[in-house]
Amino acid sequence: MVSDTPRPARARSPEEKSQRRDDILRAAERLWTNTPYADLSMNQVAREAKLAKGTLYLYFDTKEELFLALLTEHLQEWLAHLTGMLGERQPKTATDVADVIIDASKGYEALRRLLILLGTVLERNVRPELTLNFKRDVRRMLQEVIAQMPFEPDLTLKIIVHVYALAVGWQQITEETPSSETLRRYPEMSFLTLDFDTEFPISVRATIDRLTAKA
Fold first, then answer.
1. For the chain, what are the domain ranges?
2. pLDDT tens-digit map of 166-175
3. Quick one: which of 100, 101, 110 has its CA closest to 171?
């Protein structure tokens, strides 16, 4: 069956190509909200973006490359948000830094879910040079965070890596699954029904206290 929906004209100018790329990312993001990554296909993304599948591949060779670009976008947004909060609050102590990181992390569940994909799927399936470029981009984006922190650069980077590990770990542990509602019916299983916004701050504060105490 041929769709009656007209497809957009070919993007020619740099502005049009940038907009087309953004349209693809937004389409993937909308689908991913309700569709598990493993069940999501490039065909679905193309349909959601109202593009021919061949056009989609002009921008991203694989689904993994598409989601790595989406992760980069979300991570850049969060790091800019964190940098802004650090600049406003000017933290001086480990407690101050922990409070800023915890507050800056609120509302970024999509980023945490993408970070889970990074280690389990994306890095394993994209070209090595793309992974290297991604990590170089992250290192560059972290420079502004480093400049706002009251610690030496190496310690700041170590803190960020630990926060990343905690965010991914607690997201996996606290994420809703088909069995979550069933578990809540059994009081003896309450230790498995945890809340990210409760547990993550505890771990962040303890970790930053420990790391800075060793410095």
1. 12-60, 63-213
2. 999 999 999 8
3. 110
